Amino acid sequence: MMNIEEKIGKAISKVLSECYGEIILPSTISLQPTRKDFEGNYTFVTFPYTKVARKKPEEIGEEIGKLLLKKESLIEKYNVVKGFLNLSISQRYWIDLLLQINKDKKFGNLEKNNAKVMVEYSSPNTNKPLHLGHLRNNFLGYSVAKIMEAGGYEVMKTNLVNDRGIHICKSMLAYQKFGNREIPSATKKGDKLVGEYYVKFNKEFKVEIAKLITILKEKYPEKEEKEIIKLAEQQSNMLNEAKAMLKKWEEGDEEIVGLWEKLNNWVYEGFEQTYKSMGVSFDKIYKESNTYLLGKDIIEEGLQKGVFFKKQDNSVWIDLSADGLDEKLVLRADGTSVYITQDIGTAELKFGDFPMQKSVYVVGNEQDYHFKVLKLIMKHLGRPYAKGIYHLSYGMVDLPSGKMKSREGTVVDADDLITEMTETASQRTAELGKIDGFTTEEAKKLYHQLAMGALKYYLLKVDPKKRMLFNPADSIDFQGNTGVYIQYNYAKICAIIRKAIKDGIDYTNVTLSGLTTIEKTEEELIFLLSQYPSKVKEAGDTYSPALIANYAYELSKLYSKFYAELPIFSEQQKEKLFLRVLLSATTASTIEKAMGLLGIEVPQRM
RNA sequence: GGUUCUGUAGCUCAACUGGAUAGAGCAACUGCCUUCUAAGCAGUAGGUUCCAGGUUCGAGUCCUGGCAGAAUCACCA
User: CA separation (Å) from A593 to A327, A399, A403, A532, A536?
Assistant: First the structure.
């Protein structure tokens, strides 16, 4: 099926070339949907051609419009307002288009493009539970993966777990000191338990540091605050013990590794539950404990290639001043890795596992610099996948009180938030008296769907790179521009379909051959439905679930208008009735697909 | 201080990549449940798109210079 926009574009380009003797490529022609307040479906802007044509924009519009009317049978009418040529497509075209869309089972799934993309997201630390910021990350990552899949890519979702390092040792140490053999329970998941010990460490550490600072200040009244703090940290038993623990872990000390495995497994079990309730999943999990030594061989390679250079102290650097950045350390003087060393190695590992054209990293915007550097380094090393590295950078979710700090325990916990939302969904549903005929199981499922719908939509409808404010005091809305609104429209359509089936209306095999005119709202709805594939493409090209979210809302809103405006089952003309049921069904399946790309389930009833 | 990102209605966000009179939701106000689900529909009100220049037929969008906020510029990850 040839895209109508392409078709019109070609026709316009031909007509333009004929009239004004200059070759104008179809690709340069911009065709836009006509604004609501004007008659027509597509608008062609004639301003840019005044120079070539040596005519007024209105005249060009008239001239082109007249010729198009003659040459392109799909175009039925036109009108010109200033430099805008508005074209009306025949209503029969829209009816045929709807029939086509409905038959196309893969509508919205773009053709396979034989390219692979890896999406890394979530990437939690095993010393603290998942919080609101992770929710944004996980929903974004999962959704982008889905969108790329629909865009024709072969997708691999990965999760790089940060399961080692000094921060992990901190919770291990606190557990060792104060744990009393506590184990996870029904009321306290493993990740929560370990997270508590991380907070405990920091609390104790703070007390110790405060004491040390007082003593040191007396001892060295001449020293500056900064120096005192540094000294205090050097003398801190807590910190030194944690460091010693890390060293033992790296040496493979049995007891420490055992403790590490025990705590981490608790955390994984906890995460597993949270991921499940979030509805996200991964195809492959990488652990930093396996990757943290990678990358050194590539540093060696880079040295030989002259991409990197050694300083006198033997530390290895890359000079990125030609790229507008500065020098960056890639290996310490003692030969140990830094963060970027591992990421270089991991990038290579990933490409070996899954030779992808694109590699998406869903990571917060505080790491913009890091990923810029990573991409440049891979480029200088001549890696084929360097070009495809894309940092999907998203803004932090702030609280009214400011930034969330796990260290101090001032975070909105993911599990708590989900529970709370489910609670709200249950209350709202009860208030509206909408649980008639639901079993307890079904009701429970619905509450979860609604809660997650509201939450995911809330986090995904905003442009990823914008930071957002979350106020726990006013809960996430269930009315207006929300996930629940979209789910509600879907459920309403499901009721229509159920009724149609019950009444024996077979709308799936109709030709609607007697129908020549449709209502304005119906036309608009078909038009919007036809836009779905290009939205999928655009969302994939820009890695933006927000586009899909906004589309799903617009579609629901327009359907809602249609639903209120036009009768379905009381319609006397049979073919109109069929058309409306068909339109409803197509809208429902498109809503379901779009929401699926966001990772949001839609209920049959609510 | 350098770099990057952000700034649109009281609040939360859009705006088809430079197009027509900048659109939605929340909050406020007015109607609409005896008709397919009112978690809804229709409407009213709300704007110097941070400021100042520039580019052109045309700027929220592009360029320059400011202002405000955030992140980053760690041999932390």
Answer: 47, 32, 35, 10, 10
Strand B proximal residues, A:402-431, Cβ < 7 Å: 403, 425, 428-429
A204: left (phi over 0), alpha (psi -120 to 50) or beta: alpha
CB of A228 within 7 Å of some strand B atom: no
CA of A339 and C1' of B8: distance in angstroms?
A: 39
Q: Looking at residue A35, what DSSP letter applies?
A: P
Evaluate if the CB of A321 falls below 7 Å from strand B: no
Helix (H, G, I), strand (E, B), or coil: what is residue A78? strand
Q: Which two tokens stand for residue A168?
A: 């992990």
Q: What is the residue-wise DSSP string for A272-308?
A: HHHHHHHT---SEEEEHHHHTTTTHHHHHHHHHHTSE
Q: How far apart are CA A65 and CA A420, in angstroms?
A: 58
Cα distances (Å, whole numbers) of residue A240 to A232, A337, A419: 11, 20, 39
Please give the ipTM for the structure prediction: 0.96
Chain B bases closer than 7 angstroms to a protein Cβ: 3-7, 12-17, 19-21, 24-27, 35-42, 57-58, 70-77
Quick one: pLDDT band at residue A476, thresholds 50, 70, 90? confident
Q: Which residues 369 to 388 of A reach strand B, CB within 7 A?
A: 369-370
A357 C-beta neighbours (distance < 10 Å), count: 16
Identify whether the C-beta of residue A8 lies closer than 8 Å to the C-beta of residue A43.
no
Query: Is residue A249 a contact partner of residue A122, using CB atoms and an 8 Å limit?
Result: no
- Name the strand (E) or helix (H) holding A419: helix A414-431
Task: Quickly give A235 CA vs B43 C1' distance in Å.
Answer: 70
Query: Among the residues of A109-236, which ranges form H helices?
Result: 132-150, 166-178, 190-219, 225-235
Question: Quick one: A595 exposed, middle or buried, by C-beta within 10 A (0-12, 13-18, 19+)?
Answer: buried
Query: What does the block give as tokens for A479?
Result: 């009315």
Using an 8 Å Cβ cutoff, are A393 and A367 in contact? Answer: yes
Contact (CB, 8 A) for A545 and A602: no
Per-residue pLDDT of A431-444, as tens digits, reads 998 888 899 999 99
Tokens of A340: 């970027």
How do residues A244-296 score in pLDDT, each as one tens digit? 999 999 999 999 999 999 999 999 999 999 999 999 999 999 999 999 999 99
A475 CB less than 7 Å from any atom of strand B: no
> Å between A490 CA and B35 C1'?
21
Tens of pLDDT, residue by residue over A29-73, are: 888 999 988 999 999 999 999 988 889 999 999 999 999 999 988
Q: Is the CB of A570 under 7 A from strand B?
A: yes
E strand or H helix at A28: none
| Phi, psi of A46, rounded to the nearest 5 degrees | -95, -10
User: What percentage of chain A's residues is helix, strand, coil (to nearest 5)?
Assistant: 55, 10, 30
Which nucleotide is closest to A339, CA to C1'? B77
Residue A127 and residue A90 in contact, taking contact as beta carbons nearer than 8 Å: no
